[in-house]
Design goal:
globular; hydrolase (chains A, B); homodimer; 273 residues; Phospholysine phosphohistidine inorganic pyrophosphate phosphatase (chains A, B); 5-stranded parallel β-sheet; 2 domains; phosphatase activity (chains A, B); HAD-like_sf (chains A, B); Rossmann fold; 4-stranded parallel β-sheet
Chain lengths: 273, 273
């Protein structure tokens, strides 16, 4: 435990990923990960500040928080940093009118945004709405623009639902990038701007924060590039090395790793909360 | 014309792309490009050998040839080099059993292939069948394999139908590559093996052949890397530089370019046929 104490010295705030760390989505809203409801409650009773830093882009923040509260979590909308509201700010600042390729569940977040005569495309984790027809429409809008602008709400490869691994927005972002010969602007983890806004909202410096997530690139790598310490849980999309189960999501080898099977289990005392 | 005469000196065989060069697909089978039916007839009456080198992967060779004959072209199945039959040869050689993410129209080409208990994935231009569900299934099959193998029948970005630009298989190949952290094996243009097999079937050396296509990467670049001269037509997916129409599909700047608006028009005499 001494090693953990050293590694976490000076931590004043905890950034928590949601999907794969607090719960796995799926049929009927999904299921809380063992120990996570209690862990959040314990963190909130402690001296540490807590903020939820998610790339969830299928649901509005309101719907996400309602779902998590139903699963027993102590969480409110104001505690969540999510890519859809961040994207709306950027669109307004730059006077952009998006063609939206997003899940119906998150469309309400864009209610105040002018989508007429689009001059950019916004894609999010659209799930079943990533049909050929919808992808082709987004592609055609981009190809008609003199300077095609594509925003992607996160660039995750996949996530885990209770029924198995599911393609995230990242692969579809790559598809449109390749089709149009462009590079997307990513809003969400691992974008440094996104981590910085989460820190600002929590009122804690990078050096005083720790990010806990299941994605070695989006959560761990992204946080570390901002000077935030990071821990990878072994739940969610985390996959053990083994004969049949490769760890595809490896990333740079020097990332630290939580040594317990579940960070919400017995070694929770590493936070000394 | 002198310049063209020099450039085409010693040509004994012509490799012809099909989509965007001979015809544009679309409603009711599509439409022949002006001048192309006559151009093929003229080439066939000449001393030049002719072979059709296509990445068409929505239709079987039989269906493609029937469609082209209906449009007036002089073409037979034995004159066509296409990626589906080439893939079947590779699968048999390597003892691979594919999960197929392909259009129903090309499925018959894989009729003799064992698809039980798949140990690789084959994707082709599946069109509307590139649903989220089908993409996710292909992704899950790959993630279950110890050494995921993905074959892509071509890697084109898009093609032109009479109704507009349409996403080709390439963007979906990129999506699965990114999702799984792997690199696909491309069967079709611009793969050198594919061009070599077309040359072999035509009985002409690389230095004696010219490839005519509308894709600067798949047709022109691919052929040139094999030592085959290449010409880009200004039909099909070719897009002029302009204020609103960017030439996205640029590729290396040193590729030669056909200077007429349509290679099948008046400067056809450059072939001296």
């Amino acid at each position: 435990m001494a090693a953990w104490g050293e590694r976490l010295a000076g931590v004043r705030g905890v950034l928590l990923d949601i999907s794969g760390v607090l719960y796995d989505g799926g049929e009927g809203g999904g299921a809380a990960i063992a120990g996570s409801v209690e862990a959040v409650a314990r963190l909130k009773r402690s001296r540490l500040k807590v903020r939820f830093c998610t790339n969830e882009s299928q649901k509005s923040r309101g719907d996400l928080v309602r779902l998590l509260r139903r699963l027993g979590f102590d969480i409110s909308e104001g505690e969540v940093t999510a890519p859809a509201p961040a994207t709306c700010l950027i669109l307004k600042e730059r006077g952009l009118r998006p063609h939206l390729l997003v899940h119906d569940g998150v469309r309400s977040e864009f209610g105040q945004i002018d989508t007429s005569n689009p001059n950019c495309v916004v894609i999010a984790d659209a799930g079943e709405d990533f049909s050929y027809q919808n992808m082709n429409k987004a592609f055609q809008v981009l190809m008609e623009l003199e300077k095609p602008i594509l925003f992607s709400l996160g660039k995750g490869r996949y996530y885990k639902e209770t029924s198995g691994l599911m393609l995230d927005v990242g692969p579809y972002m790559k598809a449109l990038e390749y089709a149009c010969g462009i590079e997307a602007e990513v809003v969400g983890k691992p974008s440094p701007e996104f981590f910085k806004s989460a820190l600002r909202e929590m009122g804690v410096d990078a050096s005083q924060a720790v990010m806990i997530g299941d994605d070695i690139v989006g959560d761990v790598g992204g946080a570390q590039r901002c000077g935030i310490r990071a821990l990878q849980v072994r739940t969610g999309k985390f996959r053990k090395t083994g004969k049949r189960k490769r760890r595809v999501n490896l990333g740079p080898a020097h990332y630290p790793e939580v040594t317990s099977d579940n960070i919400w289990g017995s070694p929770f005392q590493m936070f000394r909360v």
